[in-house]
Write a structure and sequence with these properties.
With about 425 residues, the chain is of the alpha+beta class. Helix content is about 35%, strand content about 20%.
Length: about 425
């Protein structure tokens, strides 16, 4: 029944699993903050024109994968297919370029929408961790982002990671490469897919990004952009390699990386891991020095990356890595008879003191209350019966060590901390 089924390509995160997301998000926030990045939150939808101008109308994203619709005001609206264009729009709208540069921003758990066949670790609605740095032209910034992503993933336990880098030049040197590539492809056009035949005239670089096997075969011997770089782009790419070498990060130059978005210039990179299902890109990004100007701002260099949360979690599962499961409840307050009032007051007192506490809300018997406390993994129980209520106290019990104490209500929070630390 559709009413009780999530749409294809979407997935719920149940309460029993959300701790895994929270753990990953916490690690990502700390990694971003350590490098001076602050969080930005942008709307889940934007004006369609933003992506047509920013992402590029010859990309698969724009041509095939965007969720675009007309709102009630007959405006064309698109659910975000990627995070960078919205970040640039916000950067310009709020005059962030007037602040001290570089401006370092990150977004986290940002929903991204792609109308495509759901694939391994990539759903029609998936979530990204992304970093965007505006105003810094130096290759050290590119290296900083690559190193941040590599160290984060490695520290989480993702193995078999390889850093792949490339340079796709700039508007000064790319026209020469486009001409060389078109010359190379000229005799192969009839063998390309329909999309690539269209790309051949409008943006031949996109042919290199085609996922159709027959097209991949046709371009395997295509000329390399690296042979056409201008002096500035070549120096930038050389400095990037020097930075990665200094940091001791293994990398390889892969001239076939172009990424699926038109706004990239100079550096593009991917972090790839080898799995039983083949190679998976877990993080991708690069420099987009012309996008700010393209969207109406003054010329300003920028660089960033995106990393899918679902894909990272999937890889951690594949590695057999257990994410620490948090304790749901420090103390579960059980009660007998009509002593629910004391139990209710004790729970609220404990919570006010920063202790995670709960009680029965189902009218269970005392035996059933203990069973439930054990089921949710409560570290302690605090029982209130006639004698305890008369003494203004609760009988606390460590569920693992079986230690018991009679604790006055006023000292309950202190006792919980002592008894859980001793566990």
């Amino acid at each position: 029944m559709m009413l009780t089924q999530a749409p294809r390509g979407t997935r719920d995160v149940a309460p029993a699993d959300s701790y895994r997301w929270q753990y990953l998000e916490d690690r990502m926030r700390k990694a971003a903050a350590a490098a001076g990045y602050r969080e930005i939150r942008t709307p889940v939808f934007e004006h369609t024109e933003l992506f047509l101008r920013g992402v590029g109308d010859t990309t698969d994203i724009v041509q095939k994968e965007m969720y675009t619709f007309k709102d009630k005001g007959d405006r064309s609206i698109t659910l975000k297919p990627e995070g960078t264009a919205g970040a640039v729009r916000a950067f310009l709208e709020h005059n962030l370029y007037a602040d001290a540069l570089p401006c370092k921003m990150y977004y986290l758990n940002a929903p991204i929408f792609r109308y495509e066949a759901p694939q391994s670790g990539r759903l029609r609605e998936h979530h990204q961790f992304g970093l965007e740095c505006f105003g810094a032209p130096d290759a050290t910034t590119d290296a900083e982002l690559i190193l941040l992503a590599y160290r984060l993933l490695s520290s989480l336990g993702v193995s078999n990671l390889s850093v792949n880098i490339n340079s796709i030049g700039c508007p000064k040197c790319r026209p020469l490469y486009h001409q060389k590539l078109k010359t190379f492809l000229a005799g192969k056009v009839d063998s390309l897919c329909a999309d690539c035949r269209n790309r051949f005239e409008r943006n031949p670089l996109r042919v290199l990004d085609c996922k159709v096997p027959s097209c991949q075969e046709q371009v395997k011997d295509a000329p390399s952009m690296l042979d056409c770089l201008c002096e500035e782009c070549a120096a930038h790419f050389e400095k990037l390699q020097q930075c990665l070498t200094l940091a001791g990060i293994p990398f390889r130059v892969n001239s076939r990386i172009v990424r699926g978005l038109d706004y990239y210039t100079k550096t593009v990179f991917e972090l790839i891991t080898t799995t039983e299902q083949g190679n998976l890109t877990v993080c991708g990004g690069g420099r987009y020095d012309n996008l700010v100007e393209q969207l109406g701002g003054d010329p300003l260099p920028a660089v960033g990356f995106g990393m899918g949360l679902e894909r990272v979690l999937m890889l951690l599962d594949g590695e057999g890595i257990e994410i620490p499961r948090p304790r749901l409840c420090d103390v579960f307050v059980t009660y007998m008879g009509d002593h629910w009032t004391e139990a209710f007051s004790l729970v609220e007192t404990l919570r006010a003191a920063g202790v995670s506490a709960d009680m029965d809300h189902m009218g269970r018997s005392l035996k059933a209350q203990f069973k439930y406390a054990n089921k949710i993994g409560a570290a302690l129980t605090a029982t209130i019966g006639d004698e305890e209520a008369a003494a203004g106290a609760a009988k606390m019990k460590n569920m693992e060590t079986r230690e018991e104490r009679l604790v006055p209500f006023a000292e309950a929070a202190k006792a919980v901390r002592e008894m859980t630390e001793a566990k």
